[in-house]
Write a structure and sequence with these properties.
TPR-like_helical_dom_sf; mainly alpha; Pentacotripeptide-repeat region of PRORP domain-containing protein; 11 helices; 2 domains
Length: about 190
């Protein structure tokens, strides 16, 4: 846990290797901790490799595992991998939460995949997973980058209807989307 807290990803990997050498099976918690250390240190590739290793060793992932892996995808701007993880998660019966979908939304937004972002936000609604300001802001950002000002406007309206707080970053992102779309009168 100290490795995760202080971002000592190499030490976490060495400890995992020592466990293998001692023929000690790492638990889901141990994998999550090592993956988190890697992700925190910006070593997203290692975090995803550890998740693959979990699968190979038949260690069952949980929501935290997927959250950490999706956070790694977010940092590495791996939107395709993030979507695959969401599908894998649903296929294994692991429930996602706001953190899960938030990381996937941000990964897709960074990849300018506005359509995928909107699908994820819609999927959250169908599954009863609450969206927050950060998720909507990322969705508006994806629309802004792709010139989808109408969709950005729709997302702003949806935020108001659902009572989701709108912050300065959200407003600035929406204004930028409207301006990019030549809709200066909406600002």
């Amino acid at each position: 846990n100290a490795c995760r807290k202080f971002g000592h990803w190499q030490k976490a990997l060495h400890l995992m290797e020592d466990m293998r050498g001692a023929r000690v099976t790492a638990s889901t918690f141990i994998y999550n901790t090592a993956m988190s250390a890697c992700t925190k240190a910006g070593q997203w590739q290692w975090a995803l490799r550890l998740m693959e290793d979990m699968h190979d060793k038949r260690v069952v992932p949980d929501t935290v595992t997927y959250n950490v892996a999706l956070s790694a995808c977010q940092k590495g701007e791996q939107w395709e991998r993030a979507l695959q993880l969401i599908e894998d998660m649903r296929g294994t019966g692991v429930s996602g939460d706001t953190i899960t979908y938030g990381a996937a939304v941000i990964a897709c937004a960074k990849g300018e995949q506005w359509c995928r972002v909107l699908q994820l936000v819609e999927q959250m609604g169908h599954l009863g997973v609450p969206a927050n300001t950060g998720i909507y802001t990322a969705a508006i950002m994806a629309c802004q980058k792709s010139g989808q000002w109408q969709r950005a406007l729709w997302l702003m309206k949806e935020m108001h209807e659902k009572g989701i707080p709108v912050d300065t970053i959200t407003y600035n992102t929406a204004i930028s989307a409207y301006q990019k779309g030549g809709q200066w009168q909406r600002t």
